[in-house]
Amino acid sequence: MLKKLLRARFSKGDANDARSLESPADLTAGDIVTFKHRLALPGDVQGQTFEVSSVGAYEFEDGLYPQLTLDGAESGRIFLSFKAGDVSELCLSREVPRRDVLKLFDEDAFSALWDDDFADLQVASRLDAYDGWLADAYSQVKKWAEGYYHSRDQRGETLSQYADDDSEELRYHECEDASGRFGITVEVWGDGETEVTLDVNVAPDVVDALFPGTS
Predict the structure, then answer these.
(1) Which of the four pLDDT bands, split at 50, 70 and 90, describes residue 215?
(2) CB count, 10 Å around CB of 67?
């Protein structure tokens, strides 16, 4: 599907009519992003091409963080986020199902993230599927922090308040390794659903190319 989109992008139409994409901050739904072969990237992202399937935004105390959902033909789904107005660092995230969380981490150690004290977390075993997504050890840096998720692209809008009709409140725990390059985010939603992501912070120069969508 992605190869068809790329072929269609350059087979018809006047190139002068295409949107100019200068950075990941310019991406919208339907656009294409290709990553370089860089060791700083997880193995399933290196050299891969993704389509932006949707754009939402997280709102935290320190500002707005657009989140792009990226779907790859070979690599599945990942997320790309950055602070609004600042693309000096990109955060790539991959959701981890519960069955894999319990393989990667000791269950008792992981549940300590909910305790009163800040926890330290060691990787108990590695899975090939998460090559390049994991550090060896993490320290908890946020506990029960608050935020809101907006289900639409908020860039260019001025929010009157954290919560509005299309936002959802969440609480979250956050861990990072000693370098600050790797992280774990645990989101707890109002209905009790819990989502875990592995996060990797990278420089924007890991992006190889950006292509506007065909629509």
Answers:
(1) low
(2) 19
